[in-house]
Structures are given as structure tokens and as C-alpha cells.
């Protein structure tokens, strides 16, 4: 199946033959779908905090943040090309792009025409409007004149290409999202503004880690260095670190017969492993309490207070759980246990972590019970904010039956569920909440040692999709998603958070929503 050149290629990517064979075996499996039992709902897997608890937990968290335990981890390697997809499609058309064309598209009820019409009507409300005007003027063009004349080709070119702002080739994190009285802010800066509020220690230091694409690293670093200098004047310092998605997290593509897919030159085709590949990056930051949030989910300052409060409350919930877990684990490790302690620990596992305890454990020996409790408690912990389902895209919280028949709370994407199963699809449709990627992670054990996060992955919770390369069909494999299968064997808690804490920007027109206007 593999020749000497293949072996060299695999070794150069820091992969092993056994890993590649394991990937091929996954393609051959007939069913990798998850088995949902039911959706998580309020009082059945999702906790709702009252205002008293929210304030209490936020205060508890603040003490820990001042000690320097906390940091942010932001996946930020995504390009803005998808955000500007509509504009790209129009800019690539070999037509005279003017009002007559837009009107024709709108009359034809075409999504592209309607979306571009919305973009044009709101163009003055984008945070990059003044930058666009300036770059056009620099080249002898007037934006207002172009818009009034219905001539849009230059407008698009100066937004998307190196001829102007070059937004079509930049990472999403470098696009100005929000306009303020004297300037505008990118998502990178909005994340820094957030971090300054809830990750700053008693020395004024905030730690943030961004995963970025190698080709954009220098540009991003220059942008963030400039912003850091501004914050330093007010007593806030940033320790910003970066990492790239590792080549060793790429996965082999196969053909329709599950044989390795080869390029025209005979080389094996490897593809990026999806956001699950970032588990390696998360594992390498050597953090303690880590806030995980996507780059495009940010709001202007006027709407940040709820975000601040609930970030702290989620952090406080994690700290409170950790304190209880660590107390139990210390007792177990030094043999300080009796029947009363056993009852407390089992009650905690059942009622606080919502883990079902197998019947055989009740009749097991004391030593076996100790081992069981220790194995259930001594693992990474995540507290995940969940937003009520209002039609936004994204996975959701569900009770899932694993291969060992145990039921646990998991974040599940629709692509992980059998599309041909009416029962499973009805469970998906019954979801009351979805995942906004608002997660606080506890990645150290009761002795302060970092967990090896790779040990808590469900390696079969992969995504397989049909793609093509140069007109040839292939099957692609994505690693277990970072907050899906990559965290399957963590202890997991779901907390309801307000809708206002979730305002992602997937298309440029999302920036016209009231939540993104100043």
C-alpha cells in the first residue's frame, strides 16, 4: 500500500505508519455516528444560575484570576474569505456590475443579489468605511461618486484585493469589526479588551494565546504589538503567544475504495484535520484555567458587561467544582477515607457531575471503589456556556451513549448524527440550546500537574466528508472536534448563558446587526 517515497513523506510530517493505518481503518467503519439518548435541557443537564449565584461565582473567580491562573485561548487562523464570499462571487463575474445588475438579481430572488443589496445599503455603517474611502481617494477615486453612479466593481476590488484593503486575503481577526468615536477595532483587539477585564492578574498581566496561520503571523504580531503598547499606558500588559496548526495533525485522504488518494505526481494527499487539530496547541500552552472562545464572537464595549459577568461566573463555577474535586482526590491519595467520605464522593459524582454509576460499583471492594472514584474525578474539567436555541448555526448539548454504554453530556454537531435515522434526527430537532463555544477549561490536576489532553479523546468521534480534487472524488477525515470528540472524556458541565454573549460574524452583513453597531 505504501512505497518508500510514501514512508519518507509520512515521516517528514511527523506521522507514523500506524497512525496512517488507523486513519484508513476509520474510513472503513460502517458507522461512526453517535448515539443520542436525548437533548440536554434545563434541569436535565443544563444549569440556570440565578443572579445571586452569578454574582457569588463571579466574585469567587476574581480571586483566582488575580493569582495569575487564567488565560484566553482563541482559534484565530481562519481567513476572511468566507466572510466576504458574496463580494468575491460578484467581483469574479465578467459583467458590468451596477444597479441594473443588482436589480435583476433581486427580482430573480437570488440570494447573492439580495445580500449585496443589503451590503450597499449599509456600507456607511461598516467600521472599515472610512478606510475604504481613504484608500480610494489615495488612488484618485471617490467612494460616494462610485456609489451614486452605481459603479461597484472598483468598490469591490478596493475592499478585497491587494489593490486596496486586501480584506479577501487577510485573516478574519484583522478585519475592523466595530466603530468607536475615534477609531475602529478588529476582533483581535476586542479579545484583548475582554481579556483585560477577566484574565488580568494582580500585576496587571493578561495572558492570551492565538492560533494563527503561518503566512499571517508577522502581520498579526505587528498589529497586536501596536495595540499592546496602547494598553500598557493604562497599566495593562499582555503576554501574547502564538502557535500554528501542526502538519502532524493533517489526515490522509482516501478514494472511494478507501485506498490512499494520490496526487497526479503520485504523492499522498493530506488535508488539514479540522479544528480538532488544535487540541495539540491547547495541550502545549501549559495553562491552568483557560477560556476558549472563537475569534469572531465579539461585541463593542457597550454590550460587554454581560459577557464579563458570565465569563467570571463560568470561571467561578469551574473553580468551585475544582475545589471540591481536589479535596476528594487529596483524601483518596493519602488514604483519608471512610464510608461517610465514600457516600459524599458518590453523591458528588451523581448529582454535581451527573455521572451515572454502574450497579457493579456498589458491590465492589473498597479498593475498587477508590479506583473508580479516582478515575472519574481525576480528569480535565470544562464548564460550557449554552445559549437558548434561536436558530443560530452550531452544535448543541446532548446526552450521548458511548461504546461502553455509559451516558454522558457531550457537545454534538449535526454531522455526527445519522441523517437516515428519524429517531436521532428528532432528538437533534428537540434541542433547546446550542453551543456558542464559550468554554472554561481546567487542565491541571489536584497536584498542579498538567493533564495530557490527548488521553481524553474519543478517537472515533471523527467527521468524514465527501470532497474532490481536480475533478476526482475523495473522502476526507477531520479529527474529533476540539469541543466535541477531543473533549469526550473530560468532566463536563453545561450552564445557560444569555443570548447577548453570542454574536458571531460569519458574513460581512452580520456586522450590520444592531449588536455590532456602536
Protein architecture, described:
By secondary structure, the protein is of the alpha/beta class. It folds into two domains: 4-80 and 252-516, Spore Coat Polysaccharide Biosynthesis Protein SpsA, Chain A; 85-169, no CATH class. It has helices spanning 4-12, 17-28, 51-66, 85-91, 99-107, 111-121, 129-138, 143-148, 153-160, 187-198, 217-232, 279-284, 304-333, 339-351, 359-362, 366-377, 422-429; strands at 35-39, 41-42, 45-47, 70-75, 178-179, 184-185, 205-211, 237-243, 251-252, 270-271, 289-293, 381-388, 396-401, 407-412, 433-434, 438-442, 463-469, 472-478, 491-496. Strands 2, 3, 4, 7, 8, 11, 12, 15, 16 and 19 form a ten-stranded mixed beta sheet that branches. Helix 5 packs across helix 6 (111-121).
Short description:
The protein is of the alpha/beta class. The protein has 2 domains: 4-80 and 252-516, Spore Coat Polysaccharide Biosynthesis Protein SpsA, Chain A (Alpha-Beta Complex); 85-169, no CATH class. The protein is built from 17 helices and 19 strands.
Q: What labels describe this entry?
A:
single chain; 518 residues; alpha/beta; Spore Coat Polysaccharide Biosynthesis Protein SpsA, Chain A; 2 domains; ten-stranded mixed sheet; three-stranded antiparallel sheet; 17% strand
Amino acid at each position: 500500500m505504501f512505497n518508500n517515497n510514501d514512508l519518507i513523506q509520512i515521516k517528514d510530517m511527523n506521522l507514523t505508519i500506524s497512525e496512517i493505518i488507523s486513519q484508513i481503518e476509520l474510513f472503513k467503519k460502517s458507522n461512526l455516528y453517535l448515539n443520542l439518548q436525548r437533548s440536554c435541557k434545563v434541569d436535565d443537564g443544563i444549569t440556570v444560575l440565578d443572579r445571586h449565584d452569578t454574582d457569588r461565582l463571579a466574585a469567587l473567580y476574581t480571586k483566582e484570576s488575580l493569582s495569575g491562573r487564567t488565560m484566553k485561548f482563541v482559534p484565530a487562523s481562519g481567513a476572511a474569505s468566507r466572510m466576504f464570499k458574496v463580494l468575491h462571487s460578484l467581483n469574479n463575474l465578467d459583467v458590468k456590475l451596477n444597479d441594473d445588475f443588482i436589480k435583476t438579481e433581486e427580482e430573480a430572488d437570488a440570494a447573492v443579489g439580495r445580500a449585496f443589496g443589503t451590503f450597499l445599503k449599509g456600507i456607511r455603517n461598516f467600521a472599515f468605511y472610512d478606510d475604504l474611502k481613504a484608500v480610494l481617494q489615495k488612488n484618485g477615486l471617490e467612494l460616494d461618486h462610485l456609489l451614486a453612479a452605481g459603479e461597484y466593481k472598483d468598490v469591490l476590488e478596493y475592499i478585497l484585493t491587494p489593490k486596496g484593503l486586501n480584506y479577501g486575503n487577510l485573516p478574519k481577526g484583522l478585519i475592523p469589526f466595530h466603530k468607536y468615536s475615534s477609531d475602529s477595532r478588529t476582533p483581535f483587539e476586542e479579545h484583548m479588551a475582554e481579556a483585560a477585564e477577566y484574565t488580568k492578574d494582580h500585576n496587571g498581566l493578561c495572558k492570551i494565546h492565538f492560533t494563527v496561520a503561518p503566512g499571517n503571523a508577522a502581520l498579526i504580531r505587528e498589529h497586536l504589538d501596536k495595540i499592546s503598547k496602547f494598553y500598557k499606558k493604562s497599566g495593562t500588559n499582555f503576554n501574547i503567544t502564538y502557535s500554528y496548526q501542526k502538519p502532524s495533525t493533517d489526515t490522509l485522504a482516501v478514494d472511494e475504495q478507501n485506498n490512499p488518494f494520490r496526487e497526479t505526481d503520485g504523492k499522498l494527499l493530506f488535508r488539514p484535520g479540522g479544528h480538532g487539530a488544535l487540541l495539540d496547541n491547547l495541550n502545549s500552552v501549559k495553562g491552568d484555567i483557560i477560556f476558549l472562545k472563537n475569534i469572531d464572537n465579539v461585541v463593542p464595549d457597550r454590550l460587554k458587561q454581560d459577557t464579563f459577568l458570565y465569563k467570571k461566573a463560568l470561571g467561578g463555577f469551574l473553580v468551585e467544582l475544582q475545589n471540591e474535586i481536589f479535596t476528594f482526590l487529596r483524601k483518596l491519595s493519602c488514604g483519608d477515607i471512610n464510608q461517610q467520605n465514600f457516600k459524599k464522593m458518590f453523591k458528588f459524582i451523581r448529582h454535581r457531575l451527573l455521572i451515572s454509576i454502574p450497579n457493579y460499583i456498589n458491590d465492589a471492594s473498597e479498593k475498587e471503589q477508590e479506583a473508580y472514584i479516582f478515575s472519574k474525578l481525576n480528569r480535565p474539567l470544562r464548564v460550557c456556556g449554552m445559549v437558548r436555541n434561536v436558530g443560530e448555526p452550531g452544535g448543541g448539548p446532548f446526552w450521548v451513549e458511548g461504546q461502553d454504554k455509559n451516558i454522558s453530556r457531550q457537545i454534538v454537531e449535526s454531522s455526527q448524527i445519522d441523517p437516515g435515522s428519524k429517531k436521532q434526527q428528532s432528538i437533534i430537532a428537540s434541542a433547546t440550546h446550542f453551543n456558542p463555544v464559550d468554554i472554561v477549561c481546567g487542565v491541571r490536576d489536584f497536584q498542579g500537574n498538567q493533564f495530557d489532553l490527548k488521553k481524553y479523546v474519543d478517537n472515533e468521534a471523527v467527521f468524514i466528508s465527501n470532497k474532490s480534487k481536480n475533478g476526482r472524488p475523495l473522502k476526507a477525515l477531520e479529527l474529533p472536534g476540539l469541543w466535541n470528540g477531543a473533549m469526550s472524556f473530560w468532566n463536563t458541565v453545561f450552564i445557560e448563558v444569555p443570548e447577548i454573549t453570542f454574536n458571531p460574524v460569519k458574513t460581512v452583513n452580520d456586522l450590520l446587526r444592531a449588536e455590532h453597531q456602536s
